[in-house]
Every structure is written in C-alpha cells, then in structure tokens.
Give the backbone structure.
Amino acid sequence: MTLKVLVVDDDAAVRDALCQTLELADLEPISAGSFVVAKDRIAEDFAGVIVSDIRMPGRDGFHLLAYAREVDADLPVILLTGEGDIPMAVQAMREGAFGFLEKPCAREDLLAVLERALKTRTMVLENRRLRALVESGDPAARMLFGTSDLAEGLRARVRRVAPLETEVLITGAPGTGISKVSEVIHLSSLRSKAPFVKRAAADLAVDDLAEALVAAKGGSLFLDEITSLPAAAQLALLEALEAGSAARLLAGSTRDLAEAAEQGALNADLYYVLDVMPVRIPSLSERPEDIPVLFRHYVAQAAEQAGIAQPELAPDHMAALMAQDWPGNARSLMSAAMRFVLGMPDEIAQEVDLGLAEQLARVERSLLIAALGRQNGHASDAAKALKLPRKTFYDKLARYGIRAEDYRR
C-alpha cells in the first residue's frame, strides 16, 4: 500500500501533531506550510494522498484541491476545517474532495479516511501501470508479472532470445507458465504477426506433427512436454529442423531434459538442438516477493471474469500467501485468487489460523529459499545478499531443513 501523505497546514503546531500521528501509524508524512510549498510535491505520479487545511492565508485548501484535480483528477485530497461549517463540507465534496474532517479530528477518524484514500490511490496507480504496459508494445512487460530480480531476469532472457531464429527450450516446474512464456517469445519475435500454434506433444504422431508444422508456417510451433513426443515423431521433428523448418520450434518441458535424453525418453540429437537456447522459469518458492503482485493481478482478473467487485486484500492475507510453498506455482495461485474472489479463501484462512510465529517462520523459510535460488545455491553469497552472518544463515538452513545444493542449477 502507498504510505506517503502530504500534510498542508499553515499552523506549525497542528501540522507537526498531524505528522507525528501519521508517523506513529507507520505512514510517511511530507510537511508543507502553504500551497506554494506543497505545489512542487503535487504530481500525476505522486504515490500518496493529500491532507490539507481549508483556511490558510493566500491560496486556501479549495485552491489546492482545484490544483490537485487539474494535475490528477484521481489524486485523493482530504480537507480539514476547524469551523464545523456544513455548507463548506458540502462544497468540498462537490468539488471532488475525497473526504472532509473537522479539526481537531480524532486519530481513528483520520486514519480510517486515510486508509481508504491510500487503498484507492494504490489501485489507481497500479491500474495505470498495467495500462502503460499494455500500450508499451512490450509483451514481456505486459504479460510476465513480478518485481523480483528473478522476474526481471526472465523478462530480459525472453527479450534476448525472441528476435533470434533458433529453437527455444522453455523449462520450469508445473504451473510456472511454460505455455505463456512461449507465447510471449512468439509475440516478441519478428514472427509475431504469423501463426502461433500450440500442440500437446503426446498427441502427435508423425502425420500430426507434419500438419502442425504446416499450420505454423512462418510463425511458431509450441510443443508442450516435448519428452512425451512419440519416438518416430521426435525423429521426424529433428529431420524437419535440420532441413530448415518454416516454423520456429518452441519446446516446453517440466522435466530435466538431460536426464530424459540419458534415459532414452528424448532423442539425444534433438535434445542438443533444443538446448542451444534454454529459458528457465523460476518457481514461486524462489521469488516469494512476487506473490503479492501476481495474486493482485489474478484477483483483478477473476473479479472481472466473475462480474463482481474486487474484495479488499488485507496485509494478513498477503502474509499468509507468502508463507506457503505453492508447489503448483502460478496455476495454483490463480485458483486461490478465484476462490478468494468467490469468498472461499481456503488456504488463506488456514494459514491465518497458524498464528503469527508460524506465519513468519514460513515467510522466512521462503525468503531463504529465494535467496539460494537467486545465488544458484551458493550459501555464502545468499547469506551476504540477506545481510546475515554466515553462521546465522547456516543455522537457519538447518532449522528449516533446507539444503543449499538443492538450488544449484
């Protein structure tokens, strides 16, 4: 949630008292003694809300409200007055004030209005960010969510491989979105206007594969679970690629392909062709900081599909979500979002019932795993990234039964 509050009041004592109240509520006050001082802070991208006195010398609170609405009509402004003037309150609301409070206002009344205003502002800014991504023409930014280093690394990798004409191997744990990443690669490539054809590899005999390659001519063919492609079709695919297929192959798998080739489930020569340009999708357990971002997106999506208003997302909901391992990754998080929208938040309720200590322990375990994933299983580097002494870090690994070597790639 956005935490900044621009406090505008010409009375220094009142202004300081308001700022102190906000600080005690873990908000970030920005103090201004006049409209002139506050003006430089009011911008379309201001990540916060405004609380302003109405009666000020020179430019008053109504002038500030009008200016703020001109800069950004969606920027919440809460007006304060010490006079209890009802007509003034009506005028304030008519002119677009988010709220109106009489001074001296009770702490709980102020914080209640601020909470609603900050939630509104957060949602507005997030929706703008998503719209900007849609309009940016960058499919990786538009379709692959997350703010972690691993999420940004995935987007960067997709952008690098997309313009190339080589085959691409997309791997990840079940539910990480292999099919979606393949589509992003196609949309980011020079073939984006040509067909994108998706097929389950297990269903393709030689003739079916040939038809799929023809259907994807000039575009991309995505084969899901490439190791399930029948042996004869694997050989035919290899021959088509070596002969210069008119379709670009994007292959997906949740299996270790080197192991599959060693066991004979995947043609070894086909494996070496595919492994030239691999793209690995990190699991949610490696990047728990992305869970709130993804969950908010899925909740918005589910609410739109269901045709109902989005329910509020409380901080304890997010803490409970981050405390889970999510072995089903994005797919299971998406299902949880739908249940949450429909009023059936099973996992969240169970996690909240665990109590604060166990929730924090699960979040800590997730962050340890995420650090190891980012550092390729190197415990010393992970400890340094988390700013923990090595002994403390190793003690925590032992406490949670985490083995650093399990996260080496």
About this structure: The two ends are 35 Å apart (CA to CA). The mean pLDDT is 86.
